[in-house]
Every structure is written in structure tokens, then in C-alpha cells.
Amino acid sequence: MTTLFPIPSNHPQRFVLHNEVHARAPFNLDLPVRASHLALLLSSEQKTQERQHLITLCERFGITPPEKEVDHFSASFNSFKIRWEQHGEFSTYSFYVHDTPKDLFADSALKRVPVDWLSQLTGQVIVAAHATIVSVTDIDYDENASLTSFSAYFAGNPVIGSKVTGGAASVFTDFRIHVDGFSRFLIVNHDLRTEQAGRLLQRLFEIEVYRVMALLAFPIARKLYPALKKCDHQLYTITNAMTLPDNNDGELLDELTTLAAKVENYISSNHLRFAAANAYYQLVEQRINDLREVRIQGIQTLGEFIKRRLEPAINTCEFISHRFTLLSERVSNASQLLRTRVDIIIEKQNQGLLTSMALRAKMQLRMQQMVESISMVAITYYAASLIGKIAEALHIAGWKINPELIEGISIPFILIIFVISTKRIHKIIANTTE
Q1: Of 63, 105, 112, 364, which shows the fewest CB atoms inside 10 Å?
Q2: Interatomic CA distance for residues 37 and 53, integer angstroms
Q3: How is the beta sheet containing 183-189 ordered, strand by strand?
Q4: CA neighbours within 13 Å on the CB side: how many for 125?
Q5: Is there a contact between 326 and 240 (Cβ–Cβ < 8 Å)?
């Protein structure tokens, strides 16, 4: 890229990072509008198939398909608009149609989408929702009148709602899945602009998706609770046995090691799911704050309803995750304490063994010294006898000497030579070992 000023070259990711703030921008929607939203859980292989399936739809209507690496796409087709986003665990499809039918939810935006293409979508549906933005005159809405008539749009279920976006619209829902497999949002337009309408629908759909994704961890937490109690009781049994004087520390250490491996397996297998639940819950709270709700007298707001039912589930997940972390720390502390005890016992055993070895070495030294003394006498005896034999031979040869006298006189000299030689050998050995 040519620059007007002599500044350094651009970072390879500069423009990608700069333009990220504009990614996934909401549609500017002409009112009234109907929308259908699908969130699908996908595997890695299914994500590749999904992208090709979207390209097939674009080719069918002569629309430029999304580029290979993008993870979001928006386009207007003949009778509907589509918005596709690919996330880490799921993908979402939003379909928009600009009109107001007689039946607000029976004639959904999905009916404008080719049935054969829709039936071949990959993945599993985690969220399906219809939303309709209508004017006050379309449904004869009177905010001062009773809202019981709204329950007819939600199969007679209790209605939840509030004014949003600074009073520019009123949102109503029952947060239930109806017989068609979809939940429903009814938005009454008081003074919505096209930009506000797109943002409002996007936030409502994201609230629905993120709250369900956050709850994926709840069944796991309930399933893990008995395992948590069992592991906690097992740790109590082991630590209680550690206080007894006749326990086997080696067996207890093996049990603690097995328990530690089991607890760490539970943590590593479910940590990602619990962390994701907390992240999704924070997104739900943020989207609810973005709605800027104002209470409608007589009914719960969306934020109150979701907080009342979602917060206990998320707290349960956090409790289980935190308890497992604390349990892991307690197991680690108990293992460290037991290892310390085992090390002390082993050190005492080693000390006793070394003492015993030192005593044996001392006894061997004494025996060696005694053997050396005996050897000294024996060698002296044989050396004196040898000198005596030599003296006898010389006497026979004519020398005037007394062999027995010569033999007796040689004994002290032999002893002195042997003692000096022995000390010299000991000194050489000592210098060699040092």
C-alpha cells in the first residue's frame, strides 16, 4: 500500500485487526420485518460441509459466495436476507423478510428459504427462534391496556417483556419452545430506526443462544456432584487413616495418588465446559444491559426472568468447578504431608542402615588388625626360621657362628622391618583413596 508519509511498513495483521471492529455488523432492516434464527452445534468436519452448503445457496441465486477464510456472511436474496456466523462451538443463521403476515408466527421467514437447501443443513439445532417486528397499528397495541391479549401469540403462556432501546420498542416473549419447535419474540415498534431494529434482533437472538449455551454445563455439574461427594469422602477416609498409629503409609500414598489422578481427570475433562458457561453467561448479561430495559407494569422484564432462572444454574456450575479445584488442592496437601512422613521413615531406615554398616566396617577393621597382628607373628616366625636355616648352613660350611643365636637376634629386626613396611603400605593406601 502506498503511503503519503515516510513511515515504517505495516504490520501484516494491521488492517485485519483494524477492521475487526466492523465485523459481524447488524443489518439495517426496513420495517416491518419477520426473522427466523437457527443455532447449530457442529463438528470440525461439519463446519467444512456447512461452508460448501452456503456456497451452493449463493450459486443458486447468483450471489457472490463468502471467501474461504471468513467466518461471517450477509447477503440479500430474491425474497429474503440471510446472515451467517460461524463461532467456536456453533454456527448461526438468521433469515429476514420485510412484511407483516396475518398470522405473526405461522408464516415465518423460513418459508421463503428453499426447503431442499434447508433440509440439508448440517449439525444439531440448539436454538430455533422466530421474531416479528410490527407497528402499533398492526396489532392494535395499547400500552395502558391489559396485556393478557398478548398471551394468544404465545399459546396462552405467561408473557415476559419490557420496553427497550430507550422506549423505541417493546419486546414480548414466553421463553418457551412451541409446537413448531421454535421460541418466539414479538417486538412492537414505537419509534425504531432501521439501525436499531437490526441491533435489537441481533441482541435478542444472541441472548437466546448464549443462555442455552451457558446451560450446557448445568447437566454436567449435576452429574458430577455425586462423584464430587464420593471423592471428598474418600479423601476424608484417607486423611483420617493417616492419624492412626498402625496405618500403612505406602498403601495410603497409593490411594491418594489414584484419587489425585481421578480428580484431575474430572477437572481437565470439564474445565473447558465450565469456563465456557461462565463466558456465555457474561455475554448474556452484557446483551441484556444493552437492551436498556424499562419495566412494563404487571410483567417481568427479560433480565429479571433470565437472571432468576439462569443465575442459580451458573452458580451451581461455578460451585462444582470450585469444589473440584479445592479438592485437588486438599489431595495435593495430603499427598505432600504423607510423602513427608514416608521420606522421614525412609530417612530413619537409611540412618539405621548406615549405622549398622558403620558398625560392621568397624568390626571388620578390628578383625583385620587382629589378623595383621597374627600374620606379623607368623611371618616373623617363618623369616627367623629361614635365617636360622641359613646360619646352620654357614656353620656346617666352617663358619664359626651359632645358628640359634643368629636366629634369636634376627627376630626383633624382622619385627621392626615388618612394622615399618606395614605402616608404609597403610600410608600409600590412605593417599591413594584420598
Answers
A1: 364
A2: 17
A3: 72-76, 81-86, 90-97, 33-41, 124-135, 183-189, 169-173, 160-164, 294-295
A4: 14
A5: no
Kind of pairing between the strands at 124-135 and 33-41: antiparallel
Tell me the CB-side half-sphere exposure of residue 419, using CA atoms within 13 A: 7
Which element (helix H / strand E) includes 417?
helix 403-433
Query: Quick one: which of 86, 102, 87, 111 has its CA closest to 35?
Result: 111
According to DSSP, the residues that pair with 38 across neighbouring strands are 93, 128
Tell me, what amino acid is at 9? Answer: S
Task: Say if CB 130 and CB 183 are below 8 A apart.
Answer: yes
Q: How far is CA 335 from the centre of its chain?
A: 23
The answer to whether the Cα torsion of 47, 49, 55, 60 is positive or negative is negative
Q: Are 263 and 331 in contact (CB under 8 A)?
A: yes
Residue 290 contacts by C-beta under 8 Å, 6 or more apart in sequence?
203
Three-point CA angle 217, 219, 220, nearest 5°: 60
3-state secondary structure 303-333: HHHHHHHHHHHHHHHHHHHHHHHHHHHHHHH
pLDDT at res. 182: 94
Task: Please list the residues that pair with 188 across neighbouring strands.
Answer: 134, 170
91: left (phi over 0), alpha (psi -120 to 50) or beta: beta
Residue with cell 485437588: 328
Nearest one of 125, 126, 322, 124 to 221, comparing CA atoms: 322
CA distance 231 to 233: 5
- Cell numbers 456453533: residue: 90
Q: For residues 369 and 364, what is the distance between their CA atoms, to the nearest angstrom?
A: 9
Per-residue DSSP letter, 167:
G
Residue 344 pLDDT: 73
Rounded to an integer, what is the distance from CA 374 to the centroid of its chain?
76
Cross-strand pairs, 132: 34, 186
d(CA 91, CA 336): 46
Please give the average pLDDT of every successive group of 10 residues along the chain, which has 434 residues. Answer: 70 73 69 92 89 91 85 87 91 89 82 92 94 85 70 87 91 92 92 88 94 94 93 89 79 86 91 93 94 89 91 94 92 83 76 81 76 74 79 77 77 79 76 64
- SS3 state of residue 134: strand
